[in-house]
Amino acid sequence: MRQSSTLIPTLREVPADAEVKSHQLLLRAGYMRQNSSGIYSFLPLGKRVLQKVEQIVREEMDRAGSVELLMPALQQSELWQESGRWYSYGPELMRMKDRHQREFALGATHEEVITSLLRDEVKSYKRLPLNLYQIQTKFRDEKRPRFGLLRGREFIMKDAYSFHASQESLDEVYDKMYDAYSRIFARCGLNFRAVIADSGAMGGKDTHEFMVLSEIGEDTIAYSDTSSYAANIEMAPVVATYEKENATAHSLEKVETPNQRTIEEVAGFFNVNEAKCIKSLLFKVDDRYVLVLVRGDHEVNDIKVKNYLEASVVELASPEETKEVMNCTVGSLGPIDLAENIEVIADHGVEAVVNGICGANEEGYHYKGVNPERDFKAQYVDLRFVKEGDPSPDGQGVIKFAKGIEVGHVFKLGTRYSEAMNATYLDENGRTQPMTMGCYGIGVSRTLAAIAEQYNDENGLVWPTAVAPYHVHLIPVNMKNEEQKEVAEQLYNELLDSRYEVLLDDRQERPGVKFADSDLIGVPVRVTIGKRASEGIVEVKVRATGEQLEVAVSDLPQTINQLLTTK
């Protein structure tokens, strides 16, 4: 491609609203432009990288036995009502009405559509398993779009769905998809980890997220410092043991604590470690209220609360709800002398507290000398977030934290959708059974941004060869110099004939501008045709390493082949 014939609008200044490197560089290097908050146009360079990522995805999905199709982005509300997600999915689902006042949604995901399709087309176990995927634009009304392509309202996604007659069949395909995802992200050159995750609004059990390691990631990964164990911090179980202090139990005493509301304030008031305090939080769990207790130096993990209580919705009670239910403010909550209709669950760490501190359910008062079991009853389960330094759940090493960008997610959905939507088949005995399902997603446009986040330097993007928009950037220093122009045209055609993807900078620009743009764009190999063109010599520079060498024109294809196959 001749650079004068394409659209690569580079910028010298960093856009004011671009917070992270990938967002800044994809805008500056002319890969994309923002249309509105969270919505972008992919310009020619960006489109080429997207196509490279999509091709890798297609090759590995096909290899794993999945077959491509395309479903509508506009989805009937009736399908979402069948699954029960029309109201539970939340405000991220973009809803609309047509001229006949029929309700639709712009597809955030396609479980409902694919399930309705398969229930109409597959009636026998003989047609199972089936694994189908698509690459399509998705829509989610993010409350706060940010970080460019990493959290947008319109994005490109690969979503796959598998249907089975048995759990064993699902397990087998799940493992194949897990391996396919590992190959996809490895081929994209990413430093990633597969972590145990929560299925969230998707439903189902047994799920892994594929996380690209990055300091700007919005997810925290808890991993072992000596093994391969890794989990989203929401899902990492705590296996720490707690030793009770060998001390005589004090009597319970109510103490006036004016203006002492936070754990830090209360611990300071009583001159004790925060671990001596019992933190009490009121949660609204579906249609009831539950008081959740953790040690003062720990944090409640609402995902664990939700999973333990097998709830659909778990959210912290508002100050108004807390006042109405508990007759006190949040800073004075405690588990002693509660109404019988308030369920109490507590983290294991609370059980080991001796002579602790907790709220008295009366504004401006706390109890001291609190001893669980004597002073209150609770169900004890793992309810807190894991902390760095905790033992790894697999028994090997201790937990460390890292930040990650989620680029892929694989789920075992089970019969969550097939039962709700009556997607059944006849088994070998002629009995009606619900299909067992799996679901597998990759954020294609997010993967592009994640690559840009990991592959850049102070001068611009540094694309891995597998996803680079072009293999070679040809730069004649002076297009008015006939010898340089002739050599550039010769090499351009020879490299194209050799099946290389070439960007020829044929613009009438100063050399400094061309070189700065080339570094910014980040093509793996740059070939400069300069003053030695008359001698049949060109300069080759490797973008990733900065390595430079002079090469005879006749040897250039071989040199480029060596460079591209070793980078």
TrEMBL record:
UniProt xrefs under PROSITE patterns: AA_TRNA_LIGASE_II
First-tier enzyme category under EC: ligase
UniProt KW ATP-binding keyword: yes
Pfam families: HGTP_anticodon, tRNA-synt_2b, tRNA_edit
Subcellular locations according to the entry: Cytoplasm
Superkingdom of the organism of origin: Bacteria
SUPFAM superfamilies to which the protein is assigned, alphabetical: Class II aaRS ABD-related, Class II aaRS and biotin synthetases, YbaK/ProRS associated domain
Reactions that this protein is recorded to catalyse: tRNA(Pro) + L-proline + ATP = L-prolyl-tRNA(Pro) + AMP + diphosphate
Xref: InterPro entries: aa-tRNA-synt_IIb, aa-tRNA-synth_II, aa-tRNA-synth_II/BPL/LPL, Anticodon-bd, Anticodon-bd_dom_sf, Pro-tRNA-ligase_IIa, Pro-tRNA-synth_IIa_bac-type, Pro-tRNA-Synthase_IIa_type1
Gene Ontology molecular function: proline-tRNA ligase activity
Enzyme Commission number, as recorded: 6.1.1.15
Keywords: Aminoacyl-tRNA synthetase, ATP-binding, Cytoplasm, Ligase, Nucleotide-binding, Protein biosynthesis
Domain Aminoacyl-transfer RNA synthetases class-II family profile: 38-464
Role played: Catalyzes the attachment of proline to tRNA(Pro) in a two-step reaction: proline is first activated by ATP to form Pro-AMP and then transferred to the acceptor end of tRNA(Pro). As ProRS can inadvertently accommodate and process non-cognate amino acids such as alanine and cysteine, to avoid such errors it has two additional distinct editing activities against alanine. One activity is designated as 'pretransfer' editing and involves the tRNA(Pro)-independent hydrolysis of activated Ala-AMP.
NCBIfam families: PRK09194.1, proS_fam_II
Family: Belongs to the class-II aminoacyl-tRNA synthetase family. ProS type 1 subfamily.
Record remark: domains: Consists of three domains: the N-terminal catalytic domain, the editing domain and the C-terminal anticodon-binding domain.
Oligomeric form and interacting partners: Homodimer.
Name listed for the protein in its UniProt record: Proline--tRNA ligase
Source organism per UniProt: Priestia iocasae
Gene behind this protein: proS
